[in-house]
Specification:
The chain is of the alpha+beta class and 356 residues long. Helices cover 24% and strands 31% of the residues. It is built from seven helices and 19 strands. The protein has helices at residues 64-68, 91-104, 112-125, 198-213, 260-271, 283-291, 329-342, and strands spanning 2-5, 9-12, 35-42, 45-53, 71-73, 76-80, 86-89, 137-146, 159-168, 176-180, 218-222, 230-233, 236-242, 245-248, 276-278, 295-302, 306-315, 318-321, 353-355. The strands form three sheets. Strands 3, 4, 5, 6, 7, 8, 9 and 19 form an eight-stranded antiparallel sheet that branches. The two termini are 25 Å apart. The structure holds 2-OXO-4-methylpentanoic acid. The site of 2-OXO-4-methylpentanoic acid (COI) has 7 residues, from loops. 2-OXO-4-methylpentanoic acid is lined by residues 75, 171, 201, 235, 302-304.
């Protein structure tokens, strides 16, 4: 094993797995780069941060994460620019959200250099894994798990922070079919909906599976108390354009994930002088707007999904169709702008890209 000392010790593998990967047919989250970042928290401090081979982990069967789900994660992407630079998009926002999630889940705060320099060092180590086709990128998954071996219900005293990366293409291929969920809930007021907690995704699996059986790709979650207002979709925040106004559900109920793509699109719209409303959107308003065509664009936004147009919305047994996605003015403009910006092909007027 070849050990190099950069910001963190790097235990480089001898034989890369990269030649076994079909970069022309990448699926989301199926292939993993050669190395991972790993650090441990015990005795009240972070220690032993290093980059090592991507490998299986060994935990006590009593580790808290298996029993009480104390785990959080982030999703980010690295892009290869035409001039050879490698760019991250607003990574500090992911860092801040990660530590807010950690706080909500009673987990140790991550030092900035572990998160940001750990990502950069890992990407440099596995730079050959960054794909360069137009819809491809290197997906970055930082995550934190509670690994104290203890069966009482209390916050863990020990944690492991890791970063893995995955060469990937878009999460959704084309427009998505969604169903408005009016029985199950993703997050209730006062719960953990605003944290990127693994448990939120576990809770979504069963209703999403039922929707899949009915032919839908995803759900639109509604408020947990009355199912009257739309909140977010499975892996994305929701946005719509109604009578020329960009509208998205607000974050104040703390039941919706504060998406970084969501924030970027709101800021772009304001910059382009498009009126923006962050306000509650009733299920009734959405259905009426689709019926009378006041709603001209409906789409999901997120790191993995980027910007995914919604092709139809199922509600109470009826599918409300949208069409002509290629000509949707705002969402295509925003998607193209962000794609070009993330790949360093236009001026970074907002200071959103960070070079690795
Ligand atoms: C992301 O957009 O990075 C997400 O977290 C969605 C993921 C669960 C696939």
């Amino acid at each position: 094993m070849n050990i190099t000392q950069a910001k963190f010790p790097i235990q480089k593998i001898e034989q890369s797995r990269i030649n076994a990967v079909d970069f022309k047919n990448l699926k989301f989250g199926k292939e993993f780069s050669d190395h991972m970042f790993i650090a441990d928290y015990f005795n009240g401090k972070w220690q032993s941060a290093k980059i090592q081979a991507f490998q299986n982990l060994s935990y006590s069967p009593a580790a808290c994460v298996f029993h009480y789900g104390q785990a959080i994660f982030e999703g980010m992407k690295a892009y290869k620019a035409k001039d050879g630079r490698v760019l991250l998009f607003r990574p500090e926002e992911n860092f801040n959200r990660f530590n807010r999630s950690a706080d909500r889940m009673c987990m140790a705060q991550i030092p900035k250099e572990y998160f940001l320099d750990g990502i950069k060092e890992l990407i440099r180590t596995d730079k050959d894994w960054i794909p360069s086709a137009p819809d491809q990128s290197l997906y970055i998954r930082p995550f934190l798990v509670a690994n104290e071996a203890f069966l009482g219900v209390k916050p863990s005293d020990t944690f492991q922070f890791m970063i893995i990366t995955s060469p990937t293409s878009s999460y959704y291929q084309g427009a998505v079919k969604v169903k408005i969920e009016n029985k199950y809930s993703r997050a209730a007021s006062g719960g953990i909906g605003a944290a990127k907690a693994a448990a939120n995704y576990a809770a979504s699996l069963y209703p999403a599976q039922l929707a899949k059986k009915e032919g839908y790709d995803q759900l639109i979650w509604t408020d947990a108390s009355k199912h009257e207002y739309i909140e977010e979709s499975g892996t994305m925040n929701l946005m719509l354009v109604k009578n020329g106004v960009l509208i998205t559900p607000p974050l104040d109920s703390l039941t919706i994930l504060p998406g970084i793509t969501r924030d970027s699109i709101i800021r772009l719209a304001k910059h382009w002088k498009i009126p923006v409303e962050e306000r509650k959107v009733g299920v009734a308003e959405l259905i009426e707007g689709l019926e009378d065509k006041c709603i001209s664009e409906l789409f999901g936004v997120g790191t993995a999904a980027t910007l995914a147009p919604i092709a139809s919305v199922g509600y109470e047994g009826k599918n409300h169709q949208l069409s002509d996605f290629k000509n949707w003015e705002f969402s295509n403009k925003a998607k193209n702008y962000l794609e070009l910006l993330k790949r360093g092909e236009i001026a970074d007027d907002f200071g959103w890209t960070v070079e690795v």
